[in-house]
């Protein structure tokens, strides 16, 4: 029967339906990745080719346009999630039958999260594999990521579960919501097989049994090794050429392959240690479990460091089955019959439980000899190259430098380079044949005397016996080698010399920077006390708070003035005593504290003595975190109103070189701000806050608002007791108005003159004494007495009463006396006073008043009867001086002559024809003498020689007989030649190059005839042979060709050798020991090379083999005996003929077959690093964590900090390496980075109080207003009454807590206590009328003169005419109300009524002529000079200068 195709099914599922079906958020999924649609089974259409399987979720995401996916074969998935317009067709067009089965997924395919776990997370022995497709779908967000929802953890090949879960080899680890995963329970261990110490042949090739490289693991079998020789595809041969051994030998083959053992020489011993190999068992042992005593013992692998698994037929490397314990270098067994003990892995704890001391006792052994450094290899080298010496150790002054030729007798040289500073205690040359040459190149090789004779003995000391205080470090100076004179050999021992130095953070205060401990007796190290030679003290860290002593006179510690900035050291400060250049004594009589005392007298050697009497100076340890180059931000604490902060550390830190750097202090005391109304919320009322490593310490003090303590004006009086709660001076002027409502808080009359400024305006005049030595400070001991006498003196000197005015005196530079004119007439009195003072000074022609002061009372600085003199000048005053010559007219002899008859001819300038010439043109040339170049020569130096006729020897000769031949110019043939052409060559001497040589230097050698030895030889016998040029055959050779080779010396390379260096060795024949041998007897056999059969062999072929010694490989042996290893030792005497280093590590294995030719133990830890390059020779991982502790002594071998937080969890597996609580609050932040280790929100309100102890965890002020409502829910968090006036403004920002209109008049006085709530000036004129109802709000008299102008803007408030005469003086106070100026001569008669306006005596002689018809002087002459007639005309009235400049402005103002 033909089957009928089922119709296609269209499936449209939305992702929301899936979310309800699956319990977990993240599921393994397949993600459709083809926007065009396609067949379900096409892997390329799915992301990463991951077609969803039965436990996966099939996800179809929305594309830019709808698409269709066809399912044409049976498929099962956990669920289907479709987002958007996607159509799923099952059984396309009815052509095929298909079924989509949707069922639940198995455990592990869905979880609460997605995560990624690395393959090596659990280390060796475990396999971890992601479960599912590798894509995870998030049912909540619809996102897909490359990850897994779960992982399968199982034991790897070769491992099995431990016995506790033997039947469960796989564990599912589900991912968590935070990206982590379940903790593993599964524990795996290696599968236990029967295994023995053993090895297998490395490959199917022939080889030597004793070649380590031929074996897997690189080790030769021993008596404890099971040997496996298996032939796989190819036969091979194993050759034995020396005695060999094994515990057992197994030979196997496959097919026709064979293994052939060929014994060429020696024996192969099998099974000699017993019938059963003691290294065999199923147990698992770890070398690290073996614990040996700290010194004297060592362990090495016995039989090899690998094992052979007989069941699996494989070699397992680094599996040590047996150990041999022996005494370490420098130690020996006390029982000659017991030199070692072996331990075998018979059970898992064999190594851990083994105590070597039960079987073997090792004690120190000494070698009788001197510490030594040994030259490593018999070959040339330089002394100061460490690699040339054994173990890389250069000789020191405490060691012998040992050199030895090897058995071949080879010679070598050691050079000591210049500047190498090479030294040793002595030199020893070994006894083998050959020679050693030490070449010292322009320097010294210092051979020190033996400072410690006992060092060359059999004494042996253990470095562990040295006492090393924590402030010291030690290092070996001598190597562990000792020269044994009896055997002439170098033997291994322990270092006998150690150097002590100060540890990091400490420095020496001794005369030396190091000390040397020398082992001269067995107990030398036990009894050595380094502190007797070297004292190390702690170096003060840079950047620590410090108080510096500044008093050079010494004094008490507790006197703050003795310290910089007045800061006595606290428990946070160093006490620093710098070099003050003198010895000081500091006394302490009460308990004091500091973090330390630093005394620095390095420059002058000064000392500091601190004397402590009946008290204690406590030196607290300085916290390193409080030191350093950092600062803290204290601004938040300083600006918080609920706290008061007081510094308790110095405001400077100690820097390099004893210098100080200013900084914010490192510590402060925090208390509650009681003045601001705050009190402690708990019993803690004080806290010390420190700046700790750049961060402020945790804040624990809590201060809350206590309204009864509020003191708004900080005057120490609480508001409820304070008469002026907002006035800290409490009504200073006693006018019953507090400062906040007092317009003039310091003026009890509140602006009596109504000028808008408090008090009366004070007008001033200034007198000053500019002398720097004016005795002001002495005289001014009683300023009132001084001022009273001065005012009386000025009244006597003038016609003005100064006694009724005030004065202030200041001893500034210069001394200044200020005359004060106050009250309603202050300005006019000032003007009158100035006129009076100016008139008095002009009258006596002096610019100063000479005032003598005699104190009326005695004091400490002055006594009665003493007089102090002052010269006081009036500022702004200038004496009348018509000619401006600085002499007052009254004292000027020539008042119109500024120079005052400067030429003293009794003629003033206005009548003097030559005002600066007393003789008035003596030579009559119409030129006054002061400008006449020759005042007595009418021709004025006619020859222009700067000599006038009255003193000129040659009137018409400007040079005045320059050549001194007593002939003036007009009669001298050679005016510049006193000899007048001596040689008669027609050239005057001043232009003749050879004035006495008529030929003028015929040979041009710059020598005239009278000075020239060879007058015709320009070089003048250059070779000095007394032959001039025309007579000399070799003019440049004084010997004239001494050797007769026809070459003058200047062209002859060897002037005394006729052959001219025949052998070309740069030595002329007269100096050459071998003139025909360029090498000059190179071999030193006294036979020159040109006749020497062996020119480079001083023994000339000693063995007569026709081969000279310099090229003879063995110069003393037959040439058939050769040196195969090229080590300079002929083969017949070479202990290791194929090893050039001849068993350098002395392990009786020559280097050519030694796996570690420089390691006597041959890589005891099996890490493929020989001991000479292995820093941890018993640690296969070689100090994996680089903490300078090898694994055999390292408690945490993979943690450099070795469990830093002491939580018994090593750092490599500790989630929080520095946090003993391991992130107690689970915020993924460990201490110390977590400042709130028990608060996962990290002090959410940033109030320095962690949430676990914070009363208001989200309120930084912690209910600052104490209304029991935290800020996060408090509508007014700093207002205890929560907006008492209901104006929707809280108290802290409400200007008026109890005034809903909030001071409507803006006068800073709230309405509830404002006398005039709508008058911002609060009845400023005091007429009991507020401004809103006052016609003249600023005039208390309310327009007293009834001129309809209020007094505050009325220029004359008491005069209705308002200054009719325009002199700026109102009628009610104007003495002359209709005159401007009023009274020019101050005679109390107004100008309009005064017959003599400028004569205050008004024509005293009654001759009808006034004494002065013009004005005398202005009040301010310098200012008034701008208003004299012709300058600024018309400006006097405009500028109101009529009174001030009554003279200069007289005409205009009249």
Description:
The termini are far apart. The strands form 21 sheets. Strands 2, 4, 7, 10, 12 and 13 form a 6-stranded mixed β-sheet that branches. The protein has about 1450 residues and is mainly beta. It has 10 helices and 68 strands. Strand 57 (about 650-655) and strand 58 (about 660) form a beta hairpin. Helices cover about 5% and strands about 20% of the residues.
Helix fraction bin: under 10%
* Sheet having the most strands: 6 strands, mixed
Query: For the terminal residues, how far apart are their CA atoms?
Result: 149 Å
- Shape label: flat
Q: Which features does this protein show?
A:
six-stranded mixed beta sheet, 1454 residues, mainly beta, disordered N terminus, five-stranded mixed beta sheet
Compact description:
The protein is mainly β and 1454 residues long. It is built from 10 helices and 68 strands.
Q: Would you spell out the secondary-structure blueprint of this structure?
A:
Blueprint: E1 9-11, H1 15-21, E2 26-31, E3 38-39, E4 57-60, E5 67-71, E6 75-77, E7 79-82, E8 86-90, E9 100-102, E10 110-111, E11 126-130, E12 135-138, E13 144-146, E14 150-155, E15 159-161, E16 170-174, E17 188-190, E18 195-200, E19 207-208, E20 226-231, E21 236-240, E22 244-246, E23 248-253, E24 259-263, E25 268-270, E26 297-301, E27 307-309, E28 314-316, E29 322-327, E30 331-333, E31 340-344, H2 350-353, E32 362-364, E33 370-374, E34 381-382, E35 400-403, E36 412-416, E37 422-424, E38 426-429, E39 436-440, E40 445-447, E41 472-476, E42 481-484, E43 489-492, E44 497-502, E45 506-508, E46 514-518, H3 524-527, E47 536-538, E48 544-548, E49 555-556, E50 574-577, E51 584-588, E52 592-594, E53 596-599, E54 608-612, E55 617-619, H4 635-639, E56 643-647, E57 652-654, E58 660-662, E59 667-672, E60 676-680, E61 686-692, E62 695-696, E63 703-710, E64 763-769, H5 776-779, H6 783-797, E65 806-810, E66 815-821, H7 826-844, E67 848-853, E68 868-874, H8 1421-1424, H9 1435-1438, H10 1450-1453
Parallel strand pairs: 2-4, 3-5, 4-7, 5-8, 6-9, 18-20, 19-21, 20-23, 21-24, 22-25, 33-35, 34-36, 35-38, 36-39, 37-40, 48-50, 49-51, 50-53, 51-54, 52-55
Antiparallel strand pairs: 1-8, 2-10, 2-12, 11-14, 12-13, 14-16, 15-17, 18-27, 26-29, 27-28, 29-31, 30-32, 33-42, 41-44, 42-43, 44-46, 45-47, 48-57, 56-59, 57-58, 59-61, 60-63, 61-62, 64-66, 64-68, 65-66, 67-68
């Amino acid at each position: 029967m033909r089957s009928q195709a089922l119709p296609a099914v269209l499936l449209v599922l939305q992702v929301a339906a899936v979310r309800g079906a699956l319990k977990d958020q993240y599921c393994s999924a397949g993600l459709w990745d083809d926007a065009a649609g396609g067949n379900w089974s096409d892997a390329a259409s799915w992301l990463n080719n991951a077609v969803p399987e039965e436990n996966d979720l099939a996800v179809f995401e929305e594309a830019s346009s709808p698409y269709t996916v066809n399912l044409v074969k049976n498929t099962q998935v956990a669920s289907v999630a479709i987002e958007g317009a996607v159509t799923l067709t099952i059984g396309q067009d009815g052509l095929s039958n298909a079924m989509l089965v949707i069922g639940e997924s198995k455990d592990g395919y869905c979880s609460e999260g997605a995560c990624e776990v690395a393959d090596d997370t659990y280390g060796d022995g475990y396999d971890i594999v992601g479960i599912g497709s590798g894509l995870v779908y998030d049912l909540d967000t619809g996102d897909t990521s490359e990850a897994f929802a779960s992982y399968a953890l199982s034991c790897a090949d070769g491992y099995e579960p431990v016995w506790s879960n033997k039947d469960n080899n796989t564990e599912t680890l589900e991912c968590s919501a935070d990206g982590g995963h379940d903790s593993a329970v599964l524990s795996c261990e290696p599968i236990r097989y029967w295994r023995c110490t053993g090895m297998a042949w490395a490959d199917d090739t022939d080889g030597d049994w004793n070649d380590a490289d031929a074996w897997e693991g690189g080790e030769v079998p021993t008596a404890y090794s099971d040997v496996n020789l298996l032939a796989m595809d190819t036969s091979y041969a194993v050759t034995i050429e020396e005695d060999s051994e094994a515990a057992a030998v197994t030979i196997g083959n496959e097919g026709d392959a064979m293994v052939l053992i060929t014994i060429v020489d020696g024996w192969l011993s099998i099974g000699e240690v017993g019938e059963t190999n003691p290294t065999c068992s199923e147990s698992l042992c770890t070398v690290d479990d073996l614990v040996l005593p700290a010194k004297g013992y060592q362990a090495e692998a016995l039989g090899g460091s690998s094992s052979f698994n007989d069941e699996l037929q494989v070699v397992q490397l680094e599996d040590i089955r047996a150990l041999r314990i022996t005494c370490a270098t420098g130690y020996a067994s006390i029982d000659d019959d017991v030199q070692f003990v072996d331990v075998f892995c018979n059970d898992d704890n064999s190594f851990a439980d083994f105590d070597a001391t039960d079987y073997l006792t090792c004690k120190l052994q000494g070698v009788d000899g001197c510490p030594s450094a040994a030259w490593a290899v018999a070959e040339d080298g330089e002394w100061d190259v460490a690699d040339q010496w054994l173990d890389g150790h250069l000789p020191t002054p405490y060691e012998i430098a040992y050199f030895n030729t090897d058995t071949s007798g080879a010679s070598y040289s050691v050079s000591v380079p210049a500047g190498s500073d090479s030294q040793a205690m002595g030199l020893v040359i070994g006894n083998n044949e050959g020679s050693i040459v030490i070449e010292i190149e322009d320097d010294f090789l210092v051979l020190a005397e033996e400072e410690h004779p006992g060092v060359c003995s059999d004494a042996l000391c253990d470095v562990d016996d040295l006492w090393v205080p924590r402030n010291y470090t030690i290092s070996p100076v001598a190597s562990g080698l000792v020269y044994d004179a009896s055997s002439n050999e170098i033997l291994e021992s322990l270092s006998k010399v150690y150097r002590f130095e100060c540890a990091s953070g400490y420095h020496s205060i001794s005369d030396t920077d190091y000390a040397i401990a020398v082992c001269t007796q067995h107990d030398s190290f036990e009894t050595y006390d380094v502190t007797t030679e070297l004292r190390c003290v702690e170096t003060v860290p840079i950047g620590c708070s410090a108080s510096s002593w500044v008093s050079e006179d010494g004094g008490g510690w507790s006197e703050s003035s003795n310290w910089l900035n007045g800061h006595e050291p606290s428990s946070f400060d160093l006490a620093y005593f710098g070099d003050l250049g003198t010895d000081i004594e500091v006394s302490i009589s009460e308990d004091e504290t500091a973090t330390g005392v630093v005394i620095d007298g390095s420059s002058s050697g000064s000392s500091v003595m601190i004397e402590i009497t009946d008290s204690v100076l406590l030196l607290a340890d300085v916290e390193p975190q409080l030191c350093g180059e950092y600062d803290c931000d204290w601004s938040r604490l300083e600006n918080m109103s609920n706290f008061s902060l007081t510094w308790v550390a110095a405001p400077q830190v100690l820097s390099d070189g004893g210098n100080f750097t200013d900084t914010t202090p490192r510590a402060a005391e925090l208390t509650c701000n009681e003045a601001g109304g705050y009190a402690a919320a708990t019993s803690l009322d004080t806290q010390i806050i420190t700046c700790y490593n750049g961060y402020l310490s945790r804040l624990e003090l809590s201060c809350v608002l206590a309204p009864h303590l509020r003191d708004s004006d900080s005057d120490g009086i609480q508001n409820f007791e304070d008469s002026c709660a907002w006035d800290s001076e409490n009504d200073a002027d006693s006018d019953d108005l507090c400062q906040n409502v007092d317009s003039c808080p310091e003026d009890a009359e509140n602006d009596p003159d109504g000028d808008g400024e408090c008090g009366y305006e004070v007008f001033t005049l200034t007198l000053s004494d500019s002398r720097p030595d004016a005795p002001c400070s002495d005289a001014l001991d009683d300023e009132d007495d001084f001022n009273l006498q001065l005012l009386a003196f000025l009244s006597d000197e003038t016609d003005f009463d100064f006694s009724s005015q005030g004065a202030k005196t200041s001893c500034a530079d210069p001394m200044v006396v200020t005359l004060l004119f106050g009250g309603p007439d202050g300005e006019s009195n000032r003007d009158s006073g100035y006129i009076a003072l100016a008139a008095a000074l002009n009258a006596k022609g002096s610019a100063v008043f000479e005032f003598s002061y005699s104190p009326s009372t005695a004091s400490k600085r002055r006594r009665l009867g003493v007089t102090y003199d002052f010269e006081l000048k009036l500022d702004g005053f200038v004496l009348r001086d018509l000619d401006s010559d600085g002499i007052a007219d009254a004292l000027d002899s020539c008042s119109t002559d500024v120079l005052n008859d400067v030429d003293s001819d009794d003629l003033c300038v206005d009548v003097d024809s030559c005002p600066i010439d007393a003789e008035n043109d003596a030579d009559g040339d119409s030129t006054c003498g002061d400008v006449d170049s020759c005042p007595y020569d009418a021709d004025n130096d006619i020859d222009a020689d700067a000599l006038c006729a009255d003193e000129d020897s040659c009137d018409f000769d400007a040079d005045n007989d320059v050549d001194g031949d007593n002939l003036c110019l007009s009669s001298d043939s050679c005016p510049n030649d006193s000899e007048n052409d001596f040689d008669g060559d027609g050239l005057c001497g001043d232009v003749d190059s050879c004035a006495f040589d008529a030929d003028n230097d015929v040979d041009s050698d710059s020598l005239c005839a009278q000075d020239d030895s060879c007058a015709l030889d320009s070089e003048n016998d250059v070779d000095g042979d007394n032959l001039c040029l025309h007579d000399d055959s070799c003019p440049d050779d004084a010997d004239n060709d001494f050797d007769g080779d026809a070459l003058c010396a200047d062209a002859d390379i060897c002037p005394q050798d006729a052959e001219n260096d025949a052998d070309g060795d740069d030595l002329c024949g007269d100096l050459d020991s071998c003139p025909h041998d360029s090498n000059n007897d190179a071999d030193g056999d006294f036979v020159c090379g040109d006749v020497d059969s062996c020119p480079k062999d001083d023994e000339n072929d000693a063995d007569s083999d026709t081969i000279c010694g310099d090229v003879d490989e063995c110069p003393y042996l037959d040439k058939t005996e050769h040196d195969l290893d090229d080590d300079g030792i002929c083969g017949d005497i070479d202990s290791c003929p194929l090893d050039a280093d001849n068993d350098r590590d002395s392990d009786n294995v020559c280097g050519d077959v030694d796996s570690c030719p420089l390691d006597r133990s041959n890589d005891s830890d099996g890490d493929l690093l020989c001991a000479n390059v292995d820093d941890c020779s018993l640690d296969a991982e070689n100090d994996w964590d680089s903490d300078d502790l090898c694994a055999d002594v390292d408690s945490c071998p993979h943690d450099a900090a070795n469990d830093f937080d002491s939580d018994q969890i090593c750092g490599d597996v500790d989630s929080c390496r520095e946090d003993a609580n391991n992130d107690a609050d689970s915020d993924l932040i460990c201490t110390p980075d977590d400042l709130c280790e028990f608060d996962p929100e990290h002090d959410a309100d940033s109030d320095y109080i962690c949430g676990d102890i914070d009363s208001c965890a989200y309120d930084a002020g912690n209910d600052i207003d104490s209304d029991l409502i935290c800020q996060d829910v408090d509508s007014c968090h700093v207002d205890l009454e929560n907006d008492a006036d209901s104006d929707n403004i809280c108290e802290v920002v409400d200007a008026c807590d109890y005034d809903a209109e909030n001071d409507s008049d803006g006068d800073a006085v709230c309405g509830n206590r404002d006398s005039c709530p709508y008058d911002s000036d609060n009845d400023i004129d005091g007429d009991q009328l507020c401004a809103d109802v006052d016609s003249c709000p600023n005039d208390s008299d309310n327009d007293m003169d009834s001129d309809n102008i209020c007094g505050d803007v009325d220029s004359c408030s008491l005069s209705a005419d308002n200054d009719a005469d325009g002199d700026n003086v109102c009628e009610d106070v104007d003495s002359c109300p209709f005159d401007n100026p009023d009274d020019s001569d101050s005679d109390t008669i107004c100008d309009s009524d005064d017959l003599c306006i400028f004569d205050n005596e008004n024509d005293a002689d009654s001759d009808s002529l006034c004494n002065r018809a013009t004005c005398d002087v202005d009040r301010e002459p310098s200012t008034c000079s701008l208003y004299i007639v012709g300058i600024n005309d018309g400006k006097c009235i405009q500028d109101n200068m009529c009174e001030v400049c009554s003279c200069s402005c007289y005409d205009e103002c009249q």
